[in-house]
Amino acid sequence: MPTDTTSGAGRTLGVAMIGYAFMGAAHSQAWRSAGRFFDLPSTPRLQVLCGRDAGAATAAAARYGWTEVETDWRRVLERDDVQLVDICTPGDTHAEIAVAALEAGKHVLCEKPLANSVPEAERMAEAAAVAQARGVLSMVGFNYRRVPAIALARKLVADGRIGEVRHVRAQYLQDWIVDPQFPLVWRLQRERAGSGALGDIGAHIVDATQFIVGDQLAGVSGLTETFVKERPLVSSSSGLSASAGEETGPVTVDDAALFIGRFAGGALASFEATRFATGRKNAIRIEVNGSLGSLAFDFESMNELQFFDAGVANDVAGFSRVLVTEPEHPYMSAWWPPGHLIGYEHSFTHEIVDLVRCLAAGEPPRPSFADGLQVQRVLAAVEDSAAAGAGWTPVATD
Amino acid sequence: MPTDTTSGAGRTLGVAMIGYAFMGAAHSQAWRSAGRFFDLPSTPRLQVLCGRDAGAATAAAARYGWTEVETDWRRVLERDDVQLVDICTPGDTHAEIAVAALEAGKHVLCEKPLANSVPEAERMAEAAAVAQARGVLSMVGFNYRRVPAIALARKLVADGRIGEVRHVRAQYLQDWIVDPQFPLVWRLQRERAGSGALGDIGAHIVDATQFIVGDQLAGVSGLTETFVKERPLVSSSSGLSASAGEETGPVTVDDAALFIGRFAGGALASFEATRFATGRKNAIRIEVNGSLGSLAFDFESMNELQFFDAGVANDVAGFSRVLVTEPEHPYMSAWWPPGHLIGYEHSFTHEIVDLVRCLAAGEPPRPSFADGLQVQRVLAAVEDSAAAGAGWTPVATD
Amino acid sequence: MPTDTTSGAGRTLGVAMIGYAFMGAAHSQAWRSAGRFFDLPSTPRLQVLCGRDAGAATAAAARYGWTEVETDWRRVLERDDVQLVDICTPGDTHAEIAVAALEAGKHVLCEKPLANSVPEAERMAEAAAVAQARGVLSMVGFNYRRVPAIALARKLVADGRIGEVRHVRAQYLQDWIVDPQFPLVWRLQRERAGSGALGDIGAHIVDATQFIVGDQLAGVSGLTETFVKERPLVSSSSGLSASAGEETGPVTVDDAALFIGRFAGGALASFEATRFATGRKNAIRIEVNGSLGSLAFDFESMNELQFFDAGVANDVAGFSRVLVTEPEHPYMSAWWPPGHLIGYEHSFTHEIVDLVRCLAAGEPPRPSFADGLQVQRVLAAVEDSAAAGAGWTPVATD
Amino acid sequence: MPTDTTSGAGRTLGVAMIGYAFMGAAHSQAWRSAGRFFDLPSTPRLQVLCGRDAGAATAAAARYGWTEVETDWRRVLERDDVQLVDICTPGDTHAEIAVAALEAGKHVLCEKPLANSVPEAERMAEAAAVAQARGVLSMVGFNYRRVPAIALARKLVADGRIGEVRHVRAQYLQDWIVDPQFPLVWRLQRERAGSGALGDIGAHIVDATQFIVGDQLAGVSGLTETFVKERPLVSSSSGLSASAGEETGPVTVDDAALFIGRFAGGALASFEATRFATGRKNAIRIEVNGSLGSLAFDFESMNELQFFDAGVANDVAGFSRVLVTEPEHPYMSAWWPPGHLIGYEHSFTHEIVDLVRCLAAGEPPRPSFADGLQVQRVLAAVEDSAAAGAGWTPVATD
């Protein structure tokens, strides 16, 4: 008795993915898995993977489960079997691809940061607004919003469980380039990456905290630093490794960025993003203090949310370690019994679920390109402040 | 340019899965994902899902990605396109299916506990030995061995990093039946489940600790208890919920089991398995103390291993919280960058990877049916001890 | 303007302390400090310190603040300026001193374990009962009852906050004799110490858990082990250090003891006391699971109590880390503002406060000698069980 | 046989304490206890307690163990039996008392912050320099330097164990005035307290971090905020409580202050001090990231230091939880066996020990008044920056 091995109500969604590195692997798993655990209004078809190197792209497509390969993203936009373009390339290509895709009538999921500059991001947000009027939708990939503990944090704040927000503090701490011999990869070059820790990981905590508190940063004072100013060039033969005597080149992005600021609603903010926090691998730490309670999160324990409820009697009050694996928790009824953890990649699966549902319902998904633009403006304000000696810098608005 | 969307070197492995509840969902995700992240010598084909209810089985097959459906497991064994049978049914059916499958020349992966009784397990282990001589292999699904932190613990012990093992203490704590109104599901009935907390979750920590220390329990003194002796029957109409006035029935398995014991090598052991640890959802906690160091693990933080190295200078000695997400850690180079966590289901993916590799190499996978039998004998010794008033009871050996 | 530098309402309590090692230092600090932070009905006078070595005792008295020195404890009992005798000597001397002191009309505080054997403890409990009829009171020094987090745990259980108790698990883990070259000090000799880990530290967790749950162990099955059977003799010249080539002697007490058991009220119990848990320094870990909630404590974080309240809504339920430093918490209003921790020695100060208040009120303090005897009977049942191959052994009652 | 109940080699040090509130209780315990656990070159005599209200001061003296009382601090300076003045009054009185005491030839221990303004602090530092030339010494009471975990952190940095320091982040989080009905106590009034969270608790983390890294902040950008701008006046009759309908007054200090900055040696800094972090009672959290390792501390677990050693092999690398209770750790050999914690007040005892030893040796104790002045200048730079819109502000130097 043969079965239809795809879920969904018969409708399918043809997807093309541009780029296939780290993010490509994560997105592919999400596209493959979303309908296996969640009820979707249409079934994603992993139609085409696009990469400039035909051989590598073909291997990646086989590995990740994509049916076909293209080597020119413009060809992808001409295909009728593609309804959505998933952009997983470095930031310097986002604007061109995304705008063209939207104009071609394709829905777009674009990895973060939305773009490498505010003007690019503005162009993308404009294109998204125009497209949306035609029913063509777009989303930027701040996947951490879909970590259940962060979604729960958002819900608790929105429900008033911590009252008026007074403090937001967030750090995104990594350590992968502490070694000065680590080579000059593309993420350390401004022309490719736009910025360093600020745009790569700072963008995530700006989005995640604004999402959680339901408010936006109004102004900042920031500092950036490049601790290791020259690094070995990546030799064409050896990939990431560098040999003695090889040439070096300048690191043109920040190793670390930190800033203080104010939210529009009056909360104080303290942020830090760094690739030099020795021993911290992917520590996204977020704390929110309100008049009635507090929340704390650390991605190194991503299935937990700490919650302090000031309404609890003083003799038993304390931060509760909520294991966010109950069916009542966002996204979790689709997975395993309580106490069975999920991982990093599940945030992408949840992102795809929400996106596919929005597309079917004709509702604009969030975070939108406008949300991505606003994050970009926060990052630009931090860079401007840092360039001008850490002076106060308002975040631009429309 | 079309691609082959399956990985592997062209060879495939036809899989049939019997049963499709909780374990079926986990196994399916593992079968689908293993080749997407790991290099496999052959590509699993999710050929047929087997369940007695055709409609439900068909829906499950569509959801989980299986090509065909059978309603009689005996039919599965007759199929030439099936090389491996994955048994995900309750324990009372394991022996019959597994022995028949092995005799039919199918490799077998059987969920734990291997069987509901020692005689059944003995029959299975014998069948496995006979089959192995013919190149037909088998494995029992103690998936927690494939949690990277537990695999790392095993490696550290085997490498002598904690010296001679003196203490093993393990607890598997859940709380899903604390409410006395929770109904009399099959897991609370001896004829279906064999035992309660002891076989369901106690089996896991017996296997995991024996795996980590590379030794076996020699004898035990145990206690078991059924705190809630009568529960509402599951009404056919309402699934898990029970209404007032409904009939009740006796709980015929243990709610909790605990025992002390000795390993063959002299280490002292303390074990506890319970479904009445209010607030603990799936807390598998394992500690091992050796003459040169110690290890501690808690599944509620499954990506971490605590390691104490007695060789470190006293002023900085302490338990290190090792985030088991480095490429050096077991299984982890296939996944994400350091600091990006994995979840419960990944243990099954790793299990499948190891199994498929063993099959290709013709090497007997572990844990074997003999390993499963030995765990069963430990559980039986605990039950015998408890029945005889907690007296000392040696664990049977061949 | 001169002041009376002692607190209290003019009455004083003359105290004599027998023994002045580790416990002597802790008790002295408690006697000196109790009235500085708490309102006491009478002011302790540190009247006389007693030790066999006049020189060492005199130095200790000066260091610890005692007015006079005696070298024979029998002389202490003849003094009119002594109303209370505080026994800090090894366990083999407790019975003789305590019984004589009670007969001499002195109140007695006796360090734990109450005695080295049940018969001794029985004699002491009888003497205490006789003395109490004459208004002479006694207490055994299970100081951990006076750790605020443990006192809070007791209160929460007594108030019904965790419902019916189902599980008690406790471990007292140390590692100070893991090194096989650690010498054969008196604590490793049965004739002085009575037993090893069992009596020294196991006694504490037996008392603490029985105190918390308000119930007593009814029966046990136990194991004991001596991992290192011979150790270097302590050379008279070098104190604790041992030189190569020196003689060794047999360790005649247990290095580790573990047992399972049942409380009279039906709760299951799992206990472990060991000096071989490498990396654990003084880890007293206690967990209690009830039908409505759970508690967890670890002395390595002694100012915290973990509390799970099953009545909290599932989306925010979790173990709360209660920082036990609020004025509402037992003993804490006498100390510092919230968040300012206290330490180990404070448990003794609280013990003295409670004792002095009881003496003034004529109320028998707890834990009584009868409580100490009952703990001794539990320890004896564990030893008997271990000697008889871990069979079930009821705890003796009166 | 009578004994001399004071320790030390016969010499004594006459101490006068001005003020006797919270800090007075802590200092008194430290003065009483220092010689009981540490070998001191001279024995502190608690000679005179000074307070304006004779009755209250007399009661405090009796409670805390001081021999005499004075009601005018100027009288204290005239006494020959006083060699050291311990200033525990609010900050607006520090300068006058300290300068006069130094001029009178008395050694001075002054609570932090050194003064309420930079000019006052400068005057005090000058007086201290003049006095030091005459052998009269002084110290400011940043007691957290003497928490063993912080002293250990300092030692590890000084020993090069974490390499070049790149990041310092510190927070001092409290929540005692979150309730808007909490009254307008003196700590919320600029004329008495100088500043709010910034001076009261921010001062501690500025000092502690500069101490740990052995470097000073060179410049800052800061924000301050007063969330609750009006509060009930403290009624004379009711102490801290406020009744409905009572008058309110303006809060004239900051509720929270945060800043980013740079250390002279190039490390980036992020600081936050607040009384509005709901659920955090006295959370002093300090992290330092260096090129070879990292450190993390939280006062809510004050007996622990987290240490990451980048030199450890990657498979077992992780933050070690060092329980700072070993004899090898600063100050700890004087206290209890490993694993037995100490508390908040012990930091003052250690402060007294170091001070008394310095006085005897004629060595200037640290932190000096010059150190206190430098902290004051950091705080002033933060205030100046905040007043000027968070612009970059260098920290003044001599």
UniProtKB/TrEMBL annotation, chains A, B, C, D:
Residue ranges constituting the Gfo/Idh/MocA-like oxidoreductase N-terminal domain according to the UniProt record: 14-133
Gene3D superfamilies, alphabetized: Dihydrodipicolinate Reductase, domain 2 (3.30.360.10), NAD(P)-binding Rossmann-like Domain (3.40.50.720)
InterPro entries documented for this protein: Gfo/Idh/MocA-like_OxRdtase_N (IPR000683), Gfo/Idh/MocA_oxidrdct_glycsds (IPR050463), GFO_IDH_MocA-like_dom (IPR055170), NAD(P)-bd_dom_sf (IPR036291)
Domain (GFO/IDH/MocA-like oxidoreductase) ranges: 152-295
Keywords: Oxidoreductase
Keyword Oxidoreductase: yes
Pfam families: GFO_IDH_MocA, GFO_IDH_MocA_C3
Protein name: Gfo/Idh/MocA family protein
Organism of derivation: Spongisporangium articulatum
